[in-house]
Amino acid sequence: TEQRSEGSTPVEFNLETIGWLSGASKEERQAAANLIGFIMMFVAKYRLAANLHHDTTEASYTELQRQNEALKASEARYRELSEQLQDKVDEQVRVIQKSQQELYESARLRSVGQLAAGVAHEINNPIGFISSNLRVARDYLEDLREMVPASPANQELLDDFEDLLTESMDGTSRVAGIVSDLKTFSSIDQADYSVCNINELMQSAIHLVQTEYHHNLKITERLDQLPPVTGPPSRLSQTFFNLLDNAAQALRDSDRDPANGRILIQSGIDGERIQVIIQDNGCGIAEADRAQIFDAFFTTRPVGSGTGLGLTVARDTLRAHQGNL
C-alpha cells in the first residue's frame, strides 16, 4: 500500500520509504519488507553494472574501431612508402648498371683503340711498299709487252700476269682502307677542326656512295638550310658515308626488286641541335644483332666484305661532338 495504516510495516529502499505492508504478523511483515528491499537493491546493482558494462563495451568498441582504422591507414602508408623506396632502389640499380656498362665499354673501346692504332701502324708501312712495288711491276709489264715477241702463248701469259697485278692492287687498296678505318677508330678526338656545312658534307658522302654503287641508288634529299658547325670535315663526311653505305647494303641484301629500293635523307633543326635522318626500305637489322651493331669489328656482312668499324666510328665521331646516333 502507498499509505501507512495501523499495524503496517514500511518497505524501504536507499533510506527512503517506498511503501507499506499490512496484514499477517509483525514478524512476517518485517521479513517480507526486508526481502523486497534486498531484491530491489539487487536489481538496482544489476542495472548499474549492466549499464556500466554496456557503456564501457561501447566505448571500447568505438576506440577499437578508431585504432583499427588508424592501423589500416598506417599499413597503407607503409606499403606506399615501401613501393616508393623499391622504385628508387630499382632506379638507382639501373643507373649504377648503366654507369658500369658505360665504364666497361669506355675501357674496352680504349683498349681496342690502342690495339687498332698499333695494328694500323704495323700494317701501314708494308702495305705502302707493296702498293708501290705493284705499281712499278705494272709499268714493267708494259715494257715486257714491247720486249717479248708477239705470240698467243706470250700474250696469254702477259694478260694473266696483268690480271694478277690488278687483283693484288685491289687487295692492297682494300687493306689500306681497313688501315685507314683503324686509324680513324683509334683517333676520333685528334682530327683537325674547322667550320663546315653539314649539307655539303652530306652531298660529298652521297657522291662517294653513288660512285661506289655505280649510280644505281635512288636517293631522295630533303636538306633544310643549316647553320655552320665546327668539327673535322673528313670525319663527319666519313660518318655520313658509313651510314649511307649501310643503307645501300641493306637495299642490296633485301629480297625486293632493286628498282624499288629507296634511300631518304633529311636534315633540319631540332631545337638547338642539328638532326640528320637517313632512312631506307631495305632488309633492316635482325633483332638478335641490334645490341651489337656498335661493337667494334662486329659485322653481318660476309667475310671480306666489311671491317665492322663503320657504325662504331660513326657513333664515336658524333659523341665527340655531343651528338648521338
Automatic annotation (TrEMBL):
<feature type="domain" description="Histidine kinase">
    <location>
        <begin position="118"/>
        <end position="325"/>
    </location>
</feature>
<dbReference type="Pfam" id="PF00512">
    <property type="entry name" value="HisKA"/>
</dbReference>
<protein>
    <recommendedName>
        <fullName>histidine kinase</fullName>
        <ecNumber>2.7.13.3</ecNumber>
    </recommendedName>
</protein>
<dbReference type="InterPro" id="IPR003661">
    <property type="entry name" value="HisK_dim/P_dom"/>
</dbReference>
<dbReference type="InterPro" id="IPR005467">
    <property type="entry name" value="His_kinase_dom"/>
</dbReference>
<keyword id="KW-0808">Transferase</keyword>
<keyword id="KW-0418">Kinase</keyword>
<keyword id="KW-0597">Phosphoprotein</keyword>
<dbReference type="InterPro" id="IPR003594">
    <property type="entry name" value="HATPase_dom"/>
</dbReference>
<dbReference type="InterPro" id="IPR036890">
    <property type="entry name" value="HATPase_C_sf"/>
</dbReference>
<keyword id="KW-0175">Coiled coil</keyword>
<dbReference type="GO" id="GO:0000155">
    <property type="term" value="F:phosphorelay sensor kinase activity"/>
</dbReference>
<dbReference type="InterPro" id="IPR004358">
    <property type="entry name" value="Sig_transdc_His_kin-like_C"/>
</dbReference>
<dbReference type="Pfam" id="PF02518">
    <property type="entry name" value="HATPase_c"/>
</dbReference>
<feature type="coiled-coil region">
    <location>
        <begin position="54"/>
        <end position="102"/>
    </location>
</feature>
<dbReference type="InterPro" id="IPR036097">
    <property type="entry name" value="HisK_dim/P_sf"/>
</dbReference>
